[in-house]
Every structure is written in C-alpha cells, then in structure tokens.
Amino acid sequence: MRKSGGLIFGFLLAFGLCSFGQHFYAFYYDVSGSQDVSVNLLNTMTSDTGYLLKVYDAWGNLLWSKTGILTGYEADYYVLSDYVPRQDSSWGVATVESDDLLIIGLEYMADGTVVSIDTISQGVPKLDPGVPYWLGAYYTQAGDITTGVIVMNPWEVAVSVTVTIYGPAGDRLYQMDVALGPYESEFIDLEAVVGRGGLIWGLVDVMMTDLPVVMALEYYGEILDVKNVTEYYF
C-alpha cells in the first residue's frame, strides 16, 4: 500500500511514529547484471505499522529509501530494479525499520525468473558489549555447486569480523579479518580461496563483537539459490 511522502509524514507525526527503530531487519539484495530482488513486507499485526526501507550499494552508499504504512495484515512489495540503478556496485545490504513486527519475503530473480525465495522473520539481534558471537552457515564446493559468501554491515559505524572456512574434518581452510565501513558489504568467492572438490564443504563461521553483521550465501549451480543468516547460533 504505497502513499505519498506528505501523507506518510503526516501520519507518522499524528501517531508518534516519526522515530523508527523498534524493529530492525537487514538482508542481502543484488540488482547487478541480470539479477533482481522483490522485497515483500508483511504486517503480522492487526494495527497499522510504519516502515522505512533503505538500500545501500556494496560500498555503503545509500541508493534508495522508502517510507510506508501497512494496515493490519497488509502486505506491500517492491521490485528493487524499479528504484535502484543497475550497476556493478548495486548489491549489498538492505535494511527495514518498523514500528511493529514484520515478516519479509524475498524473491531472488535471474533473467526475470524467480530462482530462490527466502524469508526474514527475525530482526538483527542485540549483542552484549565485549562478548563474541558467531553466525554460521553451510557451504559446498562439491560437484557442480560453488558458494559465494556475503558479509554485510547494517550500521552507520564501522565494524570488524573474522570469517573462517572449515572443511568436513574440522580443519581450517581459510580465515580472514574483514573490516567494513558503514553499510559496506564484502563478497568472498569460495572457489577463489578454497577451490572446488568433493571434499570441500562444511562450515562458514563469522565471529563478531559489539555490533552484529548479517550474512548471505549464494549457491551457484544449475540455478541460483540465496539464503540469509541474520541470527547468531552462539
């Protein structure tokens, strides 16, 4: 349900919602090359909720933002290529701030066809200061599949994390420290850093402290599959 900026601003002032941030979500998008993403925002509550959607490029530059209002259980969607320029750097993190709980459905497209669907139902978590936390996900370089790892900073300040790739025997195949500027994203091509082969698969581990990052994995095979990881496992 799209409304003009003036109407939205008036609504937010009237209902005291001009300060977003009660709920904060972040996820991966890509509209470079032949890829595209449809972002579907679903209101899970009976009451109206305001939202603010922002899309950043790989270097952390804001490309587009949109405010909106969803009535009870209403849904809205945006095909990002309608609003974000197609260029090599048009990939990275998108964020959503909302006044109430949302579910976000993501349709990842290649050449105009939906090839992968993911759902974001958990907001970006809060971390205790000085305590390490870990994001984890499965990767595989076996057969005809290879994996790309995207680490994204959804914050307006710089963050640093450590990315480790383990083999199936628990051996450390690769490790790198990643420093991300505000809203910046880093892509790691696992074929370039660990190669390919039937015995190259296992855990992608991201250690973070103070401020959480979010991660996505692109699995390249006969079709593209995309999964977001926004909640720490430990």
How would the blueprint of this fold be written?
Elements: H1 5-15, E1 23-30, E2 35-43, E3 49-56, E4 62-70, E5 75-79, E6 91-98, E7 102-110, E8 113-120, E9 132-140, E10 146-152, E11 159-166, E12 172-180, E13 185-189, H2 190-194, E14 201-209, E15 214-220, E16 224-229
Antiparallel strand pairs: 1-6, 2-5, 2-7, 3-4, 3-6, 7-8, 9-14, 10-13, 10-15, 11-12, 11-14, 15-16
Question: Could you please describe the fold and organization of this structure?
Answer:
- With 234 residues, the protein is mostly beta strands.
- It has two domains: 5-120, TM1070-like (Hypothetical Protein Tm1070, Chain: A), CATH 2.60.290.11; 132-229, Hypothetical Protein Tm1070, Chain: A (Sandwich).
- The chain has helices at residues 5-15, 190-194; strands spanning 23-30, 35-43, 49-56, 62-70, 75-79, 91-98, 102-110, 113-120, 132-140, 146-152, 159-166, 172-180, 185-189, 201-209, 214-220, 224-229.
- The strands form four sheets. Strands 1-6-3-4 form a four-stranded antiparallel β-sheet, with helices on one face.
- Strand 7 (102-110) and strand 8 (113-120) form a beta hairpin.
- The longest helix has 11 residues, at 5-15.
- The chain is globular.
- It starts with a helix and ends in a 5-residue tail after the last strand.
